[in-house]
Amino acid sequence: MATDDRLQTNLMRVKRRYPASKPMTPSQLKVMEEVREASSVVPGHYYLPESDEEEYDTDIEPDEGEKPEYENLGVNVYLKTCRKLKQLPIRHVCEALMERTSIEVRNRGLTAYGTLSITNALLVNVTVTRLCLDGNALPSKALKYISWLLTENVAISSLSLDENRFDSEGIMELCNTIKVSTTLTKLSLAGNNLENVDASYVASMLLYNAVLQDLNLSYNNISDEGAAYLAEAIAANDYLKSIDLSWNKIRPSGIVHIAKAVKENVMLKSLNLAMNGIARDGCEALSAMLLNNDSLMFLNISNSRIKDLDASLLVPALLKNDSLRSLNMSYNTINSSTLVTLLQAIRRNEGRALNFLDMSGILIFRSVQFFAQQIKGSRSVFKFNHGDIVTYNGTMAEEEQQLIKQCNPLELLRWYLNLKRLSFDPFISSTGHLRKEELQTLLKRIGLTLTPSQLDQLYLTGEGTTAETIDIKAIIV
């Protein structure tokens, strides 16, 4: 297609989208004129420029006399636009336009005109579906070109703009464009110092958009006010499946808004609230959310100022919820006793849906592993991550003694022998029969302490009487 034909095609698209009865805004007219000016440099023939004219990558030039088949992929448009706007072409952008479905330009100091060169090429490319421009400190002017691209391109389904420096006007324009997008399913705006007013623009976008499924707003400055805006949109949106609000400034009141919204949402599968301030009120709201929501599968509340009493509020939800698959509570201030309470609730849950509990960074007593192992007995896929195991010399810590008292002695003994890879064979006679005092001495030698009542349970017979000896080999099989 010749340059004039392509330009006329683009202008026809604009006229269809903005008829005379509804004129374009001055901002839209300005962007259209810049695109028109950049597009006009593409010649009628599609030979790539000679390497001695500009600083182009010679590896992407054709052999002399060969006519490349790049026009439908946007490579010529990209190279000629770069030349017109005095931008140095990026080799892997050309390669991506020719061979890939994704363009990634990370941490390259990309300018607004460098962005225009890429977006202009994507106006004629239909193979690239993902555009990533992370870490370029792009100004908001670049968002105007990206917004224009989303208006015209029907292939881009994933857009990542992390760690740039957009102002509120640019965010508003981008969100207004995405409101009516029919193709974009994934958007990431992490690390852009978004404020509450920007969150309001995103919320407005979510109220209108009907295709976006994955939204990342992590590492921003959204506080409780912004969380309230987003909560209203989440409650009304039936398409969003994942939202990441980690590493913001949301405190308990904001978490309550989000939790109430998710409680009403029937589509959301993943919610990340890590590194916010959840505390007691937040945990109470999240528990109510999980009791009433049967669609959420992944919840991350790590590093969120959750203490023992706060975490215990989640027990009713863990007993009844049958949709949650993964719960991340790592790097909170939770002791082993509370962990055991949570594990016991998970074990008693009849739905047996939860298969991953992440408590990384939290110190535990070794006996906590026993309770996790009990869950694995009924669901082999269950995984329990935790921090270091507390070790001590001499007397066992009081807290762990209390935990051991809650254990079934026979199951505890089997688990401990398997954990330590121990066998009683070197210590007992061929018959394997031991009196209670002998067993107590033997357990002390291998480092396991049972309470007197637990020892009594091991010697109970089926008739309810106490046996003098037990066959230890038989019962631990």
Task: Chart the SSEs and their pairings.
Layout: H1 3-17, H2 26-39, H3 75-85, H4 91-99, E1 102-104, H5 112-122, E2 130-132, H6 140-152, E3 158-160, H7 168-179, E4 186-188, H8 196-208, E5 214-216, H9 224-236, E6 242-244, H10 252-264, E7 270-272, H11 279-292, E8 298-300, H12 308-312, H13 315-320, E9 326-328, H14 336-348, E10 356-359, H15 366-378, E11 383-386, H16 398-405, H17 409-420, E12 433-435, H18 436-446, H19 452-458, E13 469-471, H20 472-475
Parallel strand pairs: 1-2, 2-3, 3-4, 4-5, 5-6, 6-7, 7-8, 8-9, 9-10, 10-11
Antiparallel strand pairs: 12-13
Helix pairs in contact: 3-5, 5-6, 6-7, 7-8, 8-9, 9-10, 10-11, 14-15
Report on the structure:
The chain has 477 residues and is α/β, with parallel strands linked by helices. It has 20 helices and 13 strands. It has helices spanning 3-17, 26-39, 75-85, 91-99, 112-122, 140-152, 168-179, 196-208, 224-236, 252-264, 279-292, 308-312, 315-320, 336-348, 366-378, 398-405, 409-420, 436-446, 452-458, 472-475, and strands at 102-104, 130-132, 158-160, 186-188, 214-216, 242-244, 270-272, 298-300, 326-328, 356-359, 383-386, 433-435, 469-471. Helix 7 packs parallel to helix 8.
